[in-house]
């Protein structure tokens, strides 16, 4: 947590405010003005902080705490060398601070009295522009959320206005690239979900915005002038970026969010207007597959969960060659598409690149030469690019004609494979590859080939670009040559063989004569400096030449700087075109990467079908696990649709099997195939035919959960609530061990009720991994439910008592939990293992007795469970199941099976249970109702 006392004016200075020295008074003022940031104050080559802020800086950056004394007292002080400020800034940001950088804005030598200082930028996590501070792989956003007042209706702009689009709007800017995104969201929950997906580094909340507390946003929350969210101010600001805000943005609330985020970005950059934010893109989250934070996390798309040693999906499927490509691929994975045409356009391009390996490799070779052009152009237009940046831009632009040639088939580097690309998407990208000849010519003729970092010290402009500059440099060169020749000519003229011509910073050029030769010094020599063994002189001509050389050099340096700035501005004027080019390059790189990964890992192009056909994956693999296991067992997945072998297929699979048998891996691989397919990638399978899904939900059981804070069970239930509310018959739902966080009886009941609800009220494609074997009975009762299991075989070599996992999914329910064997594998002491085994056997025998002896009344919970018919006999025909089921689910509830007594309480309980409208019952209500029913049954037993 940042320390509040390090922000704002230091109290110890407040007491003596009027007596502070001018410099500290200036510091004090800046602290007052930027009171939400830690002020770093330039003093010469250092950024200094004082008082509490100094203590924070010393501690956080591990620099020495010193003191500054003046007439008013002694103040702690800590300084950071400006030359490598970036790494220190990084630490301060990590510690949760914003940093206001106060630079000297006046040349110290020219200043009369106190050097003027001003805050030139505010470094915050969401508004970074320094390459050193930015990860290349991800966009870095600051986001603002505004809330509508209910009167927000579309202004008739893009995207079709509607009331349903309010009342939240979210706007985000990546200050390093100029990307600006805006969208509307119907409520706070959706807003959080979108924020989780966007993962901004910093967040501004507008007036009245109240987001749920349980959000898992790592973003720093910053406060900014609430007036920036006002409509008129916002509209004016947005108007400075796009000609007609109403044509781009759809509602007042969007304008307000966008205005506010731009205002904050401007504030942090110390700029009037961010020239390179040249486009504002409005998007609709409904156009992409919804993946909330829970899904992103549990599918490990971008990060592995805390407990996992594996790699995230993105690691495996990202083989991009350039930074823009890397960010693009991530954005695609974050937002898989819903529009079949767009998805298939990507697949078409990937397919062509998979097919044409020479073309693919040539493209990737060229893309590897591309610099981070999005950020480069950002720096160019912020006026922060140096000559090396412009050279990098040129190198990047120089690849474009070659990329074009490769795609057009006119390049001989692709050998026999020289055809014009055929897929529509690649053709479109080819059209978008603007060679920017004007910009390239300018850069090539203007910028030196190996320019220095500094742009003020000359050497950045190429010879031949500017005649005046060339004249000045020629004068300088001639002068230097004259000096270089001087030694020889003076030796000859004076006859002093040891005479030397040299130069130093203080005295300039000199002729040095050793003491024994002083009598031979000519009259036109004037003494400049006396050393121990020699004297230094100059002549009028040397002096004149020196002035000429340094005058020319100085004028050339400053002319070079002016020319450089002019070139940079001319390039900046083409920002929009360069950004469009960058966009096309990023797409091309992401597509080529998908193709390379598909080839390397044997992925196939998925096909899309209708929901009537269901999901069908043949020999699917988990893209990450398959890379870490020597042998990965592929598995089919079929949910919904009609199939030749088994007719109508249910959409809900109850997946059982021992621990470690591969259930979670299997379920996730289905989801990952869906995500990859809709992102435009090929998929790890032999074949896949998929419907287009609207959302992937995941609910991973308590034991696998790393989220802290709330009670894990409570959290599990609230996530379940989200799923049951929001899933549709076009969603994929993964449930892993749902209900584990509470008592077995409750958990089982919830698991069952949930499955029934998904089957009857939702119709979502569902994979439900569970250890509750009772759940497999549902396949009998509901025709949309079927069982899958993962088998393990006992290893004959170890007396049949240890277990081998086959990782192979099979139809039907598992017949044993193999828990004891897994315990043994895990190294549980032999005594405990054998005792467990004995207990299991005893229970099984007991259960058999019970079954045989019709002793239903005494059945314990375990026995009741074992009483279920064996897995195989449970596989009834779908017609059977449908007949039994009759469309009503409650009557078949196995919890009460076998309890058909005349007992009045049981009958009441049954009746109440039958009345329960599951379609309108939340899991928690169901839990309470079940608890209540159970108590009533127990009460009756106790009483009887
Ligand atoms: N198809 C497969 N081929 C090869 N190895 C696999 C396969 N599926 C899973 N594995 C490996 O088996 C181990 C267990 O897998 P997983 O976590 O999916 O099991 P699980 O049944 O979900 O276990 P639990 O019930 O304990 O959560 C993992 O280490 C995984 O790498």
TrEMBL record:
GO molecular function: ATP binding; damaged DNA binding
Disordered: region residues: 843-903
Domain DNA mismatch repair proteins mutS family: 731-747
Alphabetical list of SUPFAM superfamilies matching this protein: DNA repair protein MutS, domain I (SSF55271), DNA repair protein MutS, domain II (SSF53150), DNA repair protein MutS, domain III (SSF48334), P-loop containing nucleoside triphosphate hydrolases (SSF52540)
Key words of the record: ATP-binding, DNA damage, DNA repair, DNA-binding, Nucleotide-binding
Swiss-Prot/TrEMBL GO biological process terms: mismatch repair
Assigned protein family: Belongs to the DNA mismatch repair MutS family.
Name the record gives this protein: DNA mismatch repair protein MutS
Annotated organism of origin: Halobium salinum
């Amino acid at each position: 947590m940042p320390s509040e006392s390090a922000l704002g004016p230091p109290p110890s200075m407040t007491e003596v405010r009027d007596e502070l020295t001018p410099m500290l008074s200036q510091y004090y003022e800046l602290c007052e003005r930027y009171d939400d940031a830690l002020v770093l104050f330039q003093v010469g080559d250092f950024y200094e902080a004082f008082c509490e802020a100094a203590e924070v800086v010393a501690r956080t950056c591990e620099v020495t705490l010193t003191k500054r004394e003046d007439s008013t007292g002694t103040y702690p002080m800590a300084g950071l060398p400006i030359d490598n400020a970036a790494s220190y800034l990084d630490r301060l940001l990590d510690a949760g601070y914003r940093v206001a950088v106060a630079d000297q804005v006046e040349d110290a030598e020219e200043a009369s009295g106190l050097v003027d200082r001003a805050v030139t930028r505010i470094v915050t996590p969401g508004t970074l522009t320094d390459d050193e501070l930015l990860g290349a792989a991800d966009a870095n956003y600051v986001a603002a959320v505004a809330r509508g007042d209910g009167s927000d209706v579309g202004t008739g702009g893009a995207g079709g206005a509607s009331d349903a689009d309010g009342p939240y709007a979210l706007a985000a800017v990546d200050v390093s690239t100029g990307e600006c995104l805006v969208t509307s969201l119907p409520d706070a929950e959706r807003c959080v979900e979108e924020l989780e997906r966007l993962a901004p580094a910093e967040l501004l909340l507008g007036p009245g915005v109240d987001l749920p507390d349980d959000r898992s946003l790592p973003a720093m929350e910053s406060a900014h002038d609430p007036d920036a969210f006002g409509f008129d101010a916002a509209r004016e600001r947005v108007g400075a970026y796009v000609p007609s805000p109403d044509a781009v943005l759809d509602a007042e609330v969007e304008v307000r969010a966008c205005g506010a985020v731009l205002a904050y970005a401007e504030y942090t950059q110390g700029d009037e207007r961010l020239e390179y934010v040249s486009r504002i893109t409005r998007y609709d989250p409904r156009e992409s597959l919804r993946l909330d934070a829970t899904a992103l996390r549990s599918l490990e798309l971008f990060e592995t969960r805390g407990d996992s040693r594996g790699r995230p999906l993105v690691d495996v499927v990202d083989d991009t060659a350039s930074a823009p490509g890397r960010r693009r691929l991530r954005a695609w994975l974050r937002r898989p598409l819903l529009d079949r045409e767009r998805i298939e356009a990507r697949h078409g391009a990937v397919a062509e690149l998979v097919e044409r390996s020479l073309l693919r490799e040539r493209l990737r070779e060229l893309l590897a030469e591309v610099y981070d052009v999005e950020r480069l152009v950002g720096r160019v237009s912020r006026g922060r690019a140096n000559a090396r940046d412009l050279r990098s831009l040129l190198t990047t632009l120089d690849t474009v004609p070659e990329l074009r040639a490769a795609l057009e088939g006119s390049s001989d580097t692709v050998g026999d494979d020289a055809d014009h690309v055929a897929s529509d998407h690649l053709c479109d990208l080819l059209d978008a590859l603007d060679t920017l000849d004007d910009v390239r010519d300018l850069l090539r003729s203007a910028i030196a080939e190996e320019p220095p970092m500094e742009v003020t010290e000359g050497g950045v402009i190429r010879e031949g670009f500017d005649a005046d500059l060339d004249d000045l440099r020629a004068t300088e060169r001639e002068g230097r040559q004259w000096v270089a020749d001087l030694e020889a000519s003076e030796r000859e003229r004076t006859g002093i063989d040891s005479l030397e011509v040299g130069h130093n910073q203080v005295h300039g050029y000199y002729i040095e004569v050793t003491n024994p030769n002083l009598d031979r010094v000519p009259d036109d020599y004037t003494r400049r400096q006396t050393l121990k063994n020699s004297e230094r002189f100059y002549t009028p001509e040397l002096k004149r030449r020196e002035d000429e050389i340094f005058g020319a050099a100085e004028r050339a340096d400053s002319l070079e700087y002016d020319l450089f700035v002019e070139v940079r501005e001319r390039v900046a004027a083409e920002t929009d075109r360069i950004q469009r080019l960058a966009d096309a390059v990023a797409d091309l790189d992401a597509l080529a990467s998908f193709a390379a990964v598909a080839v390397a890992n044997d992925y196939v192009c998925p096909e899309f079908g209708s929901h009537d056909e269901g999901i069908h994956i043949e020999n699917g693999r988990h893209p990450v696990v398959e890379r870490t296991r020597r042998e990965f067992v592929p598995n089919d997945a079929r949910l919904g649709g009609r199939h030749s072998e088994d007719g109508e297929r249910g959409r809900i699979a109850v997946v059982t099997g021992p621990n470690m048998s591969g259930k979670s891996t299997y379920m996730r691989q289905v989801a990952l195939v869906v995500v990859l397919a809709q992102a435009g990638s090929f998929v790890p399978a032999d074949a896949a035919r998929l419907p287009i899904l609207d959302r992937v939900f995941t609910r991973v059981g308590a034991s696998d959960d790393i989220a802290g804070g709330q009670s894990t069970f409570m959290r599990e239930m609230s996530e379940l609530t989200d799923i049951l509310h929001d899933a549709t018959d076009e969603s994929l739902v993964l449930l892993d061990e749902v209900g584990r966080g509470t008592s077995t009886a409750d958990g089982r009941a919830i698991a069952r009720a949930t499955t029934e609800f998904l089957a009857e009220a939702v119709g979502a494609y569902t994979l439900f991994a569970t250890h509750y074997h009772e759940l497999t009975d549902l396949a009998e009762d509901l025709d949309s439910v079927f069982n899958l299991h993962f088998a393990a075989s006992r290893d004959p070599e170890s007396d049949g008592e240890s277990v081998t996992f086959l990782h192979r999914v099979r139809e039907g329910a598992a017949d044993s939990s193999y828990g004891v064997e897994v315990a043994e594998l895990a190294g549980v002491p032999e005594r405990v293992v054998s005792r467990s085994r004995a207990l299991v056997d005893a229970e099984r025998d007991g259960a058999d007795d019970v079954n045989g002896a019709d002793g239903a009344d005494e059945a314990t919970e375990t026995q009741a469970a074992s009483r279920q018919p064996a897995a195989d006999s449970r596989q009834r025909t779908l017609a059977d199941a449908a007949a039994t089921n009759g469309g009503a689910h409650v009557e078949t509830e196995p919890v009460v099976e076998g309890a058909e007594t005349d007992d009045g309480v049981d009958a009441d309980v049954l009746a109440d249970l039958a009345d329960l409208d599951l379609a309108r019952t939340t899991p928690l209500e169901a839990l309470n109702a079940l608890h209540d029913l159970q108590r009533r049954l127990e009460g009756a037993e106790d009483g009887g």
